[in-house]
Design goal:
Blueprint: H1 10-13, H2 20-36, H3 47-69, H4 85-99, H5 103-110, H6 120-129, H7 139-151, H8 155-168, H9 176-187, H10 203-213, H11 226-244, H12 249-256, H13 260-271, E1 275-281, H14 296-306, E2 311-317, H15 323-337, E3 341-345, H16 351-366, E4 370-374, H17 385-398, E5 401-403, H18 406-411, H19 428-446
Parallel strand pairs: 1-2, 1-3, 3-4, 4-5
Helix pairs in contact: 3-4, 3-6, 3-8, 4-6, 7-8, 8-9, 8-11, 10-11, 12-14, 13-19, 14-19, 15-16, 16-17
Length: 447
Amino acid sequence: MRNSEFGMRKADCGIGRMARAFALIACLSSQVARADTPVVPRSDLSRAAQVIEAVIIGTHAYQIRLARVAGRGSEACWAAPELSDEALEALVAHQAGLFASNRLALKDWIAGRDHMRFDPARDVFPLLSAPVPLDQRLPVNVFTERAAAASNKPLSTVRSVASLYQLILEVERDGDELQDAFAFLTGLGLPVYAGQLGLPGDDASLASFGATLAPLTCAAPFATDANAWRDAGRKVWNWGEKHLGVRNASIVAAELSTTPTVRAVVNRLRAAGPARVAVIGHSFTMGNHWASPGSFTTIAAEMLAEANVPLETRHYSAGGLTATRAVRTFEREVVEWRPRVTLLVVAVRNDEDLAALASLIGSLRAAGSAVVMFDSVGDSAERDDAMRSRRNEAARTAGAVIVPAAGRLAAAPDHAKFLSLDGIHMTEPYHRLMALVWLEALDQALH
């Protein structure tokens, strides 16, 4: 093997004639090692900052595709002429791969300990080296500039939170993809909401900050007006607290469990003995919704679990769940599980839903389940009083127990605080009250 095959010259290794024989093997080894070591893009950044920027680039790559579909691909914020659609899709895949990577190995790499052999060349470096321009008017950069000035926190700390704003404004992916991002960042110990930057989180402050950011943000294939920024702030804040355990269903349940009224009904439920309880419902029953630390049904389930009440609760939930879709999606599974009590919180919008509701109640009752519904849960879909009356009558005729809740909701002292910023979903005060209403209804159904 000739030295020229490795591009070597004597001067490359500083080798004198007398030392050459002894240093040749070591020099060759170093040359091979350097050839196998990937070039680190953005070596000016810490490893944690490299990961954060990789996440941001993956999100923006997806949104460039959205902009192209929406006819905005030539605008400054969304132009990426060097990247084909296929290249953008590959970057999105790298982000997904990064989210799915071994969290412990990645933390080890970030800390400068490579014992677990995390390979940044697989997903981090391809994202960092991609020619994806990040215009200063993009949400991630607008938020970074203003939040950094207001918080005096390190740039990487602010960028971690900013990455979630860039994603959450694009509301079509604020489900699984957003939750993956939250879980990824929290798993690495990185900040995920503005409270960790020392910024205020009340609605008025979020609205004021949103009004400041909106005119600085470029037009996008999703809303970036003041209300969109405000809502994004609330979502990031609430979900951040949930993922970090600052405020979630368990904490609300623990607070409620100290009240005499709740303790009394929980004790009665404990005396009822073991039973299965099913909840079939729309987003008002989904514990991972942004508007509250938990839904009234997940908060109630936490209270029962903490008190060692022998009731097993299973949730069968989906956003916007109608009676028709509930039959198609959940009926068979729930009937086969044979719960002793089933709560239905489903939307009924037309005659098809009315027929599906009656059919579902009939199937559940035939399987030995008592079926409970509320006369109203305050859902915006219930604003049609005539349809709501027809729904309640159809449910009652089919054998469901209709529990009065509308009056208690209307009479609540903090009723004005029930509706969330989006005008659809409900905040924590609503879910706290409804958790008690549900436990009382469950107590009646089991005795």
